[in-house]
């Protein structure tokens, strides 16, 4: 039997089905519940970063309004997939003609990524919304509110979605790993939040990919992302700065060979380390080294050999690090 997508992808499998299941976003959930109770609502505008529950909230709302068979009263369109406003208009027209549910006087259209539409297309959309307002309510979802034209903003009730808090994300991940009976380290779940900063979809996707390593550890999380653990990059940089060039080079080889990281990944992380306020070096040395990092990155992108370029950079770190650090003693 072919598995359904919601059985394969945890982000789908664990998508809350009802408003009560939604994690946090309390104010939003309360307002939406009122619409369900009154069986009435205006057009809605959901704005906020990816993976914070906009689509989920729209689906849970229609589920609670119409029950398990909500699908016949619900049309989901993606503004960036569908070819232009004409397709949207004709699909909405067709949908508006279908039967309305007995106990709720309207059906719902969810238009995802509405901020990808041009201003002209949004004007046309606004007319379509007005034309079918008798039988249909629109929920527009977007990442950037500023890209939605004023006439649409003023005709919709705005719901702002914010990134989920660390505690909410970690608890949700915990719930999933327990349910899936996978081994995990608590620190790994926290690391996932530190990387995704409240994007629940991304958090769950990383969790699932890391689980494929048998146990969800910090190391597995970094592997999934194709990133070395910051600690290893930091160690390499510090060894080089102390003039321990051969040891730093050994670390570099481990990152390239064992981790299978690309030169581009490594140079980006070296950049992060050298700009971090945790690294205690003088401004002068920092500026000098970052200049070399820029040059190395450029050469790597242009196709020069990763290992040779990064080794040359470590040599610069060793030469100048040693000089500046001993000068300051
Ligand atoms: N508040 C939440 N509670 C529980 N799970 C959530 C929540 N928000 C998001 N998720 C999880 O993340 C997945 C993605 O969420 P959703 O599709 O709602 O994001 P979105 O805000 O619509 O993102 P995009 O802007 O990328 O479309 C869901 O399938 C669900 O598993």
From TrEMBL:
GO terms for cellular component: DNA replication factor C complex. One of its GO terms (molecular function) is DNA clamp loader activity. SUPFAM superfamilies: P-loop containing nucleoside triphosphate hydrolases, post-AAA+ oligomerization domain-like. It comes from the Archaea. The keyword Methyltransferase does not apply. Heteromultimer composed of small subunits (RfcS) and large subunits (RfcL). Part of the RFC clamp loader complex which loads the PCNA sliding clamp onto DNA. This is Replication factor C small subunit. It comes from Saccharolobus caldissimus. The lineage of its organism: Archaea, Thermoproteota, Thermoprotei, Sulfolobales, Sulfolobaceae.
């Amino acid at each position: 039997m072919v598995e359904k997508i919601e059985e394969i992808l945890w982000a789908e499998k664990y998508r809350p089905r009802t408003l009560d299941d939604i994690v946090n976003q309390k104010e939003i959930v309360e307002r939406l519940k009122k619409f369900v109770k009154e069986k009435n609502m205006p057009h809605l505008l959901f704005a906020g970063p990816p993976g914070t529950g906009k689509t989920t909230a729209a689906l849970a709302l229609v589920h609670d309004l119409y029950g398990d068979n909500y699908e016949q009263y619900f049309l989901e369109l993606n503004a960036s997939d569908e070819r232009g406003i004409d397709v949207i208009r004709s699909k909405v027209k067709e949908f508006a003609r279908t039967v309305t549910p007995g106990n709720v006087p309207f059906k719902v259209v969810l238009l995802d990524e509405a901020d990808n539409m041009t201003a002209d297309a949004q004007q046309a959309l606004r007319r379509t919304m007005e034309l079918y307002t008798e039988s249909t309510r629109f929920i527009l979802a977007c990442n950037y509110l500023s890209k939605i034209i004023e006439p649409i903003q003023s005709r919709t009730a705005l719901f702002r979605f914010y990134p989920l808090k660390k505690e909410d994300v970690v608890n949700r991940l915990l719930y999933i790993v327990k349910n899936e009976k996978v081994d995990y380290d608590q620190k790994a779940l926290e690391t996932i939040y530190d990387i995704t900063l409240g994007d629940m979809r991304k958090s769950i996707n990383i969790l699932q990919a890391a689980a494929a390593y048998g146990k969800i550890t910090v190391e597995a999380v970094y592997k999934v992302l194709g990133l070395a653990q910051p600690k290893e990059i930091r160690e390499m940089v510090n060894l080089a700065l102390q003039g321990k060039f051969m040891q730093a080079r050994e670390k570099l080889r481990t990152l390239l060979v064992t981790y299978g990281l690309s030169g581009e990944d490594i140079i980006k992380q070296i950049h992060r380390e050298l700009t971090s306020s945790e690294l205690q070096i003088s401004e002068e040395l920092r500026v000098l080294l970052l200049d070399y990092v820029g040059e190395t990155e450029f050469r790597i992108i242009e196709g020069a050999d990763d290992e040779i370029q990064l080794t040359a950079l470590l040599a610069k770190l060793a030469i100048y690090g040693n000089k500046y650090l001993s000068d300051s003693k």
